[in-house]
Design a protein that fits this description.
Number of strands: 5
Helix content: 40-55%
Radius of gyration: 16 Å
Strand content: 15-25%
Largest sheet: 3 strands, parallel
Order of helices and strands: EHEHHHEHEE
Number of helices: 5
Shape: globular
Strand order of the largest sheet: 2-1-3
Structural class: alpha/beta
Distance between the termini: 23 Å
């Protein structure tokens, strides 16, 4: 066993929201990579800003939002029906993601286990307009990940713009 990815970089795993179903998915993923000979260097604590029972209840308990979600997907539904909630979700998730990146070493992989639609909403919040189009993931507003799909996020420091941290969704995986 080794605590590195196939390309030799260390791997950390975060349980995302801490919900039971997320913890179960994280354990299944850890078992899978362990079977491939990869042991996570650390398991980072969950962060409820990646999704929590109260938030999901607030989203699914809104009949207008649910109807619009069926028509146009979560991102468009929140943007149309509950824009303040969308802004809060995306701000909270972006802050949580930056914090998780700060908890790992440079050049380390970070795998955050989560569930739809939170992953897609995070990707939309991180999509920088000035990112080179050839590397940024083309995000459709109605993007809905399938079982065991994910999005690869890359963190980079933009030294040209006051050391801003830039996190970009770059690839759909799974």
């Amino acid at each position: 066993m080794f605590n590195q990815s196939e390309n030799g970089l260390p791997v950390s795993v975060c349980e995302g929201s801490g919900l039971e179903r997320t913890a179960q998915t994280a354990q299944a993923y850890l078992d899978y990579i362990y079977d491939k000979g990869i042991v996570a260097t650390q398991i980072l604590p969950a962060d409820p800003r990646f999704g929590n029972a109260d938030l999901f209840k607030q989203m699914t308990g809104n009949a207008e939002l649910m109807a619009e979600q069926k028509r146009s997907g979560w991102y468009n539904a929140l943007k149309t029906v509950a824009p303040d909630l969308l802004t809060k979700i995306q701000k909270d998730q972006a802050e949580a993601l930056e914090r998780k990146f700060a908890e790992i070493e440079e050049n380390e992989f970070l795998i955050i286990i989560g569930h739809t639609p939170m992953i897609e909403l995070l990707a939309h919040s991180c999509k920088a307009e000035d990112v080179e189009p050839s590397i940024a993931l083309n995000l459709r507003p109605d993007l809905a990940l399938k079982e065991l799909q994910g999005i690869l996020f890359v963190q980079d420091f933009d030294f040209v713009r006051n050391n801003d941290i830039k996190i970009t969704p770059v690839a759909l995986i799974g």
